[in-house]
Amino acid sequence: MTLDDAVIARHTVKAFEPGKTLPQEQIETLLNVLHNSPSSVNSQPWHFVVASTPEGREAMAKSTTGAFVYNEPKVLNASHVIALCMRTDIDDAHLQKVLAQENADGRFVAEGAQAGQDKSRRSYVDMHRYELRDMPQWMEKQVYLALGGLLLGAAMLGIDATPMEGFDTAALDRALGLREKGLTSVVLVSLGYRSDKDFNAALPKSRLSRDEVFTFI
């Protein structure tokens, strides 16, 4: 499948075929996509919870009740559901952990590179914490970068996917014990095999014209 084919074929699946499980090698590829997602100054302010069992999906589904009950089948009937989460803060311990990993992976070749990277990243963190005061929004943007890569990766593999903001974040945080870990949920993605009830598969894509969305200079 070409990239053009994938972006045209990709759509938000409205119904999954229950009881069908994606091959583990495909899941590993998608986890690799998430693991290597880009983030501003390599801040990596995220965590991903992967539900691959009925029990895991049921825990996720605790957030799709009430006003969000329409999303419950998309969680329960999927093969895998991933909760993309963000940190509640980028604290010193996280900054030290990222820096140590970069050092272990051999990213600091030039003299002073490690200190320079640490100073630069901390300056961005401080800017968003103190001047712009948009730390949660900044971290959430990084999670959405990971979401885009995940959806495109799934499309390239021919995997059906549904991104969902329609869930109770507080309920999911409780069900997964996220807040005790300094995390909060941002978006869910269900992955699996679409069923014949997926009406969206037969509908054409609809986007504004290229003239509306592009300016060439």
Automatic annotation (TrEMBL):
CDD domains registered for this protein in UniProt: NfsB-like
Range of residues in the leader sequence: none
UniProt gene name: nfnB
Lineage, broadest ranks: Bacteria, Pseudomonadati, Pseudomonadota, Gammaproteobacteria, Enterobacterales
Keyword Transmembrane belongs to the record: yes
Family: Belongs to the nitroreductase family.
Enzyme class: oxidoreductase
Keywords: Membrane, NADP, Oxidoreductase, Transmembrane, Transmembrane helix
EC number(s) given by UniProt: 1.-.-.-
The protein's name: Oxygen-insensitive NAD(P)H nitroreductase
SUPFAM superfamilies attached to this UniProt entry: FMN-dependent nitroreductase-like (SSF55469)
Entry's transmembrane regions: 143-159
Nitroreductase domain mapped to chain residues: 9-193
Organism, as annotated: Phytobacter massiliensis
InterPro entries linked to this entry: NfsB-like, Nitroreductase, Nitroreductase-like
Domain of life of the source: Bacteria
